[in-house]
Amino acid sequence: MSNNFNSNRLSLARLRRGLTIKSLADKVGRTTRTISSYENGQEEPPESTLVIISKVLNFPLNFFYADDPDDIDTDAVSFRALSKMTATQRNIAISAGQIAVLFNNWLQKKLNLPATHVPEYRDLSPSAAAHALRQEWGLGELSITNMIHLLESKGIRVFSLFYNVKEIDAFSFWKDNIPYIFLNHQKSGERSRFDAAHELGHLILHKHAKPQGREAEFQADNFASSFLMPEGAVKSATVFMPTLDAMIKLKENWKVSVAALVRRFKDLDLMTDWYYQKLNIQMSQLGMLTKEINGIPHENSQLLEKVFKLLWVQGVTREKISEELLIPVSDLDNLVFGLSASSTMGNSITKPSLTLVK
User: Fold this and answer.
1) What angle do CA 168, 171, 172 make, to 5 degrees?
2) Which DSSP category does 309 fall into?
3) From CA 321, how far away is CA 319, in angstroms rounded?
4) How far is the C-alpha of 335 from the C-alpha of 345, rounded, in Å?
5) Which residue has the higher pLDDT, 82 or 269?
6) What is the mean pLDDT of the chain?
7) What is the pLDDT of residue 358?
8) What is the DSSP letter of 346?
9) For residue 84, which of 173, 194, 188, 165 has the smallest C-alpha distance?
10) pTM of the model as a whole
11) 306-331: per-residue pLDDT in tens?
12) Fewer CB atoms < 10 Å away: N or C end of the chain?
């Protein structure tokens, strides 16, 4: 903890709350130029002003005196549906990512977390990369029971996006050779699984490239479809041009949306373009393009559930964690699927195995 005001922390807190410099200035009764000088490090705010800023942004006063947070290169972040996002929404997400990195760094000092085992396949096509990763991870052609559990077992840190980011489906990035994925649980369970696979595609296909743009999104979608619905297994379990009712039943095996499964059939030449359009018209008429039939429950973090249970046994509460991270409890809850609030639950969890750092 530093004795000096940290201007970068003020920027992080403001962006996390989705405020512009002007809107913050209006809320604290200062000029835009004054707030800008605080964030640029040209001027240190009086303690009385910082107290007001702290209350407006709902961050503890000590937050603004801590060390610099880790920067996240915006160009290195893959955003699902980037074209639908505003700059404010993007800033909210990036700042959430910075807080997640702070939390992960804090955790790594206390617990032995799963090591990262995420290969790079930038020279492979998306479908070939999906097949190679399934072989690397020993999945074969089996349906994936739980995407979040799988990702966490391979060292990928998965966090949630509950807080004021409805327009953001998911995003991911690498930081210090650790991969991060953020998922929006306001979407359907099927959509969240596909988003998780989509972001996994970005992590392995675009680690050293800019993971944005139409082509990168197409590649990540192709990867996700191939990874969740492997070609050999889909072909062996289906018939040519199945009915919509048959597709609804089949989707239960792969835990994807009917629309995603229908598209996979088309891409694998298991139905004609005409039949694909016919099924899409039927799905639209039944409202299935916006609401899933026989939807699956949302997947949750197994790693974080065990983390909070283990910490609670050690006497470390969510309030203590928030105090050490210098963030509100609500910000912690919003990042961890709300699991910090239920850390005393008695569920038995065996994987991934965690031990305390000695």
Assistant:
1) 170
2) H
3) 5
4) 19
5) 269
6) 91
7) 66
8) -
9) 165
10) 0.93
11) 999 999 999 999 999 999 999 999 99
12) C
- How far apart CA 129 and CA 148 sit, in angstroms, is 19
pLDDT bin (cut points 50, 70, 90) of residue 344 is very low
Q: What is the DSSP letter of 184?
A: -
Planar angle of CA 257, 259, 262, nearest 5 degrees: 110
Strands 157-160 and 178-183: parallel
300 token code pair: 């949750």
**Token output for 102:** 């702070």
Cβ proximity of 81 and 167 under 8 Å: yes
150-173 in b/e form (b: 16+ CB < 10 A) is: bbbbbbbbbbbbbbebeebbbbbb
Per-residue pLDDT for 293 more than 80? Answer: yes
Reduced to 3 states (helix: H, G, I; strand: E, B; else coil), residue 190 is helix
Q: Are 223 and 235 in contact (CB under 8 A)?
A: no
Tokens describing residue 182: 């953020």
Across the beta sheet with 157-160, the strand order is 78-79, 170-175, 178-183, 157-160
DSSP 16-54: HTT--HHHHHHHHT--HHHHHHHHTTSSPPPHHHHHHHH
Phi, psi of 254 (to 5 degrees): -95, -10
Q: Are the CB atoms for 140 and 132 separated by under 8 Å?
A: no
> Which pLDDT score is estimated for 345?
44
- Of 20-29, 58-67, 304-313, 333-342, the poorest mean pLDDT is in 333-342
pLDDT tens for each residue of 31-86: 999 999 999 999 999 999 999 999 999 999 999 999 999 999 888 898 876 667 88
Tokens (6 digits) for 154 = 């391979």
Q: Residue 172 in contact with residue 124, Cβ under 8 Å?
A: no
Q: Is the peptide bond before 352 cis (omega within 30 degrees of 0)?
A: yes
258-267 vs 244-254: helix crossing angle, rounded to 10: 100
